[in-house]
Write a structure and sequence with these properties.
The chain has 422 residues and is of the alpha/beta class. The protein folds into three domains: 88 residues, Helicase, Ruva Protein, domain 3 (Orthogonal Bundle); 164 residues, Rossmann fold; 119 residues, Alpha-Beta Plaits. The protein is built from 15 helices and twelve strands. It has a five-stranded parallel beta sheet, sandwiched between helices. The chain has a five-stranded antiparallel beta sheet with strand order 8-10-11-9-12, with helices on one face. A two-stranded parallel ribbon has the order 6-7. Helix 4 packs parallel to helix 5. The protein is flat and about 75 Å long. The termini are far apart. The relative contact order is 0.11.
Length: 422
C-alpha cells in the first residue's frame, strides 16, 4: 500500500520468516554459529529456544539456505502436532521418500535404510523440528529413539529442536531425562538490545529497497523499543504501522507521535506508553495473586471427594486428601502423591481438560466433591508418585508450561484398582 510512496520494492516488515531479512544481531549470530558448529561436528541433538517472536523460524530458514548443498539433505517439520507414526511419515516425505509403509516399524526401517544410504554416499541428513514445544511427551520420547539410528562411529541423523521456552520446561520432566541428557548444544535466543533496534529497522528497509530517505526519529525508536522490548516480531508490527501512518501524513520522517498512533490501532483505544511493559507485568502479577487466593478458597470448600473411574483408571477406598504441608519424601503404606489439576462445575469441563493433558502419559483420575452451595464439583487428578520431590517437579512444570494456576500436590491414601489401564 505504501511501498510506492517510500520507493520500496516490497514491504520491509512482513511477519513471514523470510531469510533474506535475517538480521545477525550479536545473539542471533551466536545461535547461528552454534548450529553450524553442531552440524559440522555431527553432535546429534541441538536445542534452540526463544520467546515468541524472537526469530527462531527465520533463523531456521536462514540455516537451511546455508547448509543446503550437494552433500546435505534436510527435513523440516513446521507444525509437529502429530502422533509418532504421523511424524515419521512427515519426515520421510520431507526427505523425498515415497513410502507405502503401514506400520511404525516399517516406517522406521525405511528411514534407517535411507540414512544408511546417505552415509554410504557421504551425505549428511538433518531433521529440524520447529515449534517443538507442541510435541506430546510420548512423541518426544520417540524422537529420542531416532537418535539411536547410528553406526559404530557416528550418528546417522542430526536432530535440531527449536521451540519456545516451554520446551526447556518439558525437557526437564523426569520422564524425558534420557532425551535431555543427549542434547549436546543448547542456545537461547534473547531479544534485541536497545542499540540494535535502529540497525534492525534500517537493515530491513535496505533489503526492501530503501535508498536511505526513510528516517525514524530517536523518539520514534524509543517508542518502538518500549513497545517491543526487542522482540523482532513486535518491532515489525510497530514499524509497519508507523510507515502506514507516515504514508497517511505524506511524511518520510517517522515521528514519535506517528508511532504512538500506529500502536493505538494495534492495541485498541489506549495508546501504549513507555511504561507499557511494566503495566503489563503488574496486571499479570495481580491476576496471578487473585488466582492464588481463589485456589486457597476453593481448596477450603472442596476438600473431601468420592473417586469414580475415568478412562478405565480408578481408585478405591477413601478420597484424596490435601497434604501440601508434608515434607516427607515417601508416603506411608499404600499412599501415593498425585496432582490436583483443578475443580470444575461439570464433568464435561473436567473431561475436556483431561483430553488436553492425556498426551503426557500420566494416569488420570476424576473425583466428585460436595460444594458449599449444595452442588457437586468435579476434580481432575494426574499421576501417582512415590516421592514428593517428583510430584513437586511435575506440579511446577504444569504451572509454568501448561498454565494450570490452581494445580497442587495432594496425598492419597488409596490403592490402585486391579482394573486400571496399563
Amino acid at each position: 500500500m505504501y511501498e510506492e510512496f517510500y520507493g520500496l520494492k516490497e514491504k520491509p516488515f512482513n511477519l513471514t520468516p523470510d531469510p533474506r531479512f535475517f538480521f545477525l544481531s550479536e545473539n542471533h549470530r551466536g545461535a547461528f554459529e552454534h548450529l553450524l558448529y553442531g552440524i559440522k561436528e555431527r553432535e546429534g541433538f541441538i536445542l534452540i529456544t526463544g520467546e515468541v517472536g524472537a526469530g527462531k523460524t527465520t533463523l531456521c530458514r536462514a540455516l537451511l539456505n546455508k547448509i543446503e548443498s550437494q552433500s546435505t539433505d534436510s527435513a523440516l517439520v513446521l507444525n509437529p502436532m502429530f502422533s509418532g507414526q504421523e511424524l515419521l511419515q512427515c519426515i520421510l516425505g520431507d526427505f523425498g521418500i515415497q513410502s507405502k509403509a503401514m506400520t511404525k516399524k516399517e516406517l522406521l526401517d525405511e528411514l534407517n535404510q535411507f540414512l544408511l544410504n546417505q552415509q554410504a554416499a557421504n551425505r549428511n541428513s538433518i531433521l529440524i523440528i520447529d515449534e517443538a514445544q507442541n510435541l506430546p511427551l510420548p512423541v518426544l520420547e520417540e524422537i529420542r529413539i531416532l537418535s539411536n539410528l547410528e553406526t559404530e562411529k557416528e550418528k546417522l541423523l542430526q536432530i535440531i529442536l527449536m521451540g519456545q521456552v516451554e520446551l526447556k520446561e518439558k525437557l526437564s520432566l523426569p520422564r524425558l531425562r534420557q532425551l535431555n541428557q543427549r542434547i549436546s548444544i543448547r542456545y537461547h535466543l534473547q531479544p534485541l538490545g536497545r542499540e540494535e533496534v535502529p540497525r534492525y529497522i534500517q537493515h530491513r528497509l535496505t533489503v526492501a529497497g530503501s535508498s536511505g530517505d526513510i528516517h525514524f526519529t530517536q523518539g520514534a525508536l524509543r517508542e518502538i523499543y518500549h513497545y517491543s522490548q526487542g522482540i523482532p516480531r513486535l518491532i515489525n508490527l510497530a514499524s509497519d504501522r508507523a510507515l502506514l501512518g507516515g504514508y497517511a501524513e505524506q511524511n518520510r520522517e517517522i515521528q514519535r507521535q506517528t508511532v504512538i498512533k500506529g500502536l493505538k490501532s494495534l492495541e485498541g483505544e489506549e495508546a501504549p506508553r513507555s511504561n507499557g511493559p511494566f503495566k503489563q507485568r503488574l496486571t499479570l502479577g495481580l491476576a496471578a495473586l487473585a488466582i492464588f487466593f481463589l485456589g486457597i478458597f476453593s481448596a477450603f470448600f472442596f476438600l473431601d471427594s468420592e473417586i469414580f473411574p475415568f478412562k478405565r483408571r480408578s481408585l478405591h477406598s477413601s478420597p484424596p486428601s490435601a497434604d501440601t504441608r508434608s515434607s516427607q519424601e515417601r508416603p506411608q503404606g499404600n499412599s501415593f502423591y498425585t496432582i490436583q489439576l483443578g475443580s470444575y462445575k461439570t464433568e464435561a469441563e473436567a473431561l475436556e481438560v483431561a483430553e488436553r493433558v492425556k498426551s503426557t502419559g500420566y494416569p488420570l483420575f476424576l473425583a466428585k466433591a460436595d460444594a458449599a452451595d449444595g452442588g457437586t464439583r468435579h476434580r481432575l487428578y494426574l499421576g501417582q508418585f512415590a516421592q514428593r520431590a517428583e510430584a513437586d517437579e511435575v506440579e511446577r512444570t504444569f504451572k509454568r508450561v501448561e498454565g494450570f494456576s490452581e494445580v497442587q500436590v495432594v496425598l492419597t491414601s488409596t490403592q490402585l484398582s486391579k482394573k486400571a489401564a496399563p
